[in-house]
Amino acid sequence: MDSDTQTVATDSPYLRSDEFRRWLAYTLLGGFDPAALAHEVVRQTGEPLHLVEAEIALAQASPYLQGAAPIRERLTKTRWVLHNRARLAALVPDALTVPVLDRPDPDDVLRHHYAAHRPAVLRGLVDDWAARSSWTLDGIAERLGDTPVRVQWNRESIPDYEVQSPSLRTSRPFSEIAERLRNPEPTNDFYVTANNAEDNREAFEPLREDVGEIPGILAPGSPRDGFIWIGPRGTVTPWHHDLTNNLLLQLQGRKRVRLVASHDTPLMRNSQHCYSDWTTADLPAGPAHDDRPAVHEVTIGPGEALFIPVGWWHHVEGLDQTIGMSFTGFVWDNDFYSGYTTFGEL
Ligand SMILES: O=C(O)CCC(=O)C(=O)O
């Protein structure tokens, strides 16, 4: 280790600041060309070129940065592996079609979707459930009356309502929620979501007797513990991925779901936990282009369930007033949560 290079100081307090040095390390490790970087820093800060070049040389000579280089190389290699998967998946003409399976054999679901890590729409799984006919807005309103229900409220007041969802959580008598739901105007301002599930366990208990089983796919008894989703036309659940495999079931109304394969995670602008910085308009359905991943699109209606593989990105829009459930209690290994550690900034 050369101690001289570590102690060289430039004459610019800004270039010597921790903030600039953190940014410089991040940018150099990201693979930015050092010469181009020097000119960019001069352009943005007005600092003299020779001082900027000296600071960049100091960073490049730093054993701290050199020690991090293999991590960058491993990341680059992982991205290469994932990009190859994306190119191979795009080779077939129906690459963006989400298959629809009618009353599927659980073994086919396991073989071709769960273990194969590919989404599918599953039909005919819940035809015998009482909830198929009893979970209408009027039916639920009658049973719940004024029972307080946890709901995401005032979502339209902040752009990152999903990330900030704990701060938007409130309780309202179900009768008040039902009244808002009866207004046909589309809105994303309120939504009973899985985030409210724990708080709503007792409130929704009377409804659960109408929930049946999905034999061979969900563990016996587990559907009753599923998450309940109730929202107006116009809800938008922004791009994110789950930490488990998930089955999203519609009982009333349609949802349009866009999906991006987990192998395209490097393109998902994932700067925090499971969220993406892409907006609704940024990623319409279609093949990959420029820095955008291939986007699948499917609409699910009453009685249909979408299997969303763990780590697959999804974006969900309520095309109608919707009532549905989601489940994670599969009969197959679904504990991908306990190995997940990256809850913060990425
Ligand atoms: O139905 C929705 O609005 C979102 C469902 C979802 O994203 C999920 O279950 O992870």
Automatic annotation (TrEMBL):
It comes from the Bacteria. Transmembrane segments: none annotated. Residues 181-346 form the JmjC domain. Pfam families: Cupin_8. This is Cupin-like domain-containing protein.
